[in-house]
Amino acid sequence: MNMNALNPKSQKLRLSNIILLVFLLTSCTLMAEGIKPTGTIPIETQSPPATKSLLMGTRLSTATQSIDNLIAIIEVSDPASITYDPASAAYAEFPDALKELAASNASTNDAASMLAYSLGFPRQDSILAAQEIISLGPDWASTLLPALIMYLSDQRPEHRMVSAIILSITHDKGSCSLGNIGPLLWDTDPYVRTSAALAIQGITGNELVSNIYVITPDNFTPNPVPADTPEGKIVGAARSWWTDHGSKVNW
Questions:
Q1: pLDDT in tens, 160-188
Q2: What 8-state DSSP symbol labels residue 60?
Q3: Which distant-in-sequence residues (6+ apart) come within 8 Å of 205 by Cβ?
Q4: Does pTM surpass 0.70?
Q5: The predicted structure's pLDDT at residue 241
Q6: Most buried one in 27, 97, 199, 244, CB count within 10 A?
């Protein structure tokens, strides 16, 4: 997308995102070996000219859309995009576009990083992007650590929750995120607390959560993990481990 086409507010928003992502990239090493997507989060993704069929809402064809077309559809849900239009038919194609983008993921395109970027969009079903990221596997999820760490401090609790769930599959490759996950064991949201405990367990390999609460994070219902209620029921052991051990490590 051409930055010159964005209004000053949008330019400022994207510049802030870039600065934050650069900071995260320098503080957290991407560990996945042999997988090198062409970008981390496509803040400056070059969009193709919008076609009439896209803007008028022609439904996704059964044939796989090109990456550029899929990104153009997804950017309709991005408030910072000049094509942002919640009333458009293309906006409704968001879930299908996510699925096709995941299916098209390769080391030669920005599909995975665009999935991570779309996870932060202000629409209720943006968390569907998390399920598609998980479908790519732990190595690809590990390439998205900067974005996932950023979402751990997002205002929306569902973003904090699903980011922790994704991080739970990265195993030791996601260890640099533990310093951001640990404090979420005391989050005000009970689902975030559970997700944080599961993430710490998945990354460290320590048994911190009872087996009855462990989930297979591949089917995102509105509440894909059980709530930590009463507080501490699920995350108690994880809190003790964090207080005694985890918080003392420079992750």
A1: 999 999 999 999 999 999 999 999 999 99
A2: P
A3: 171, 172
A4: yes
A5: 97
A6: 199
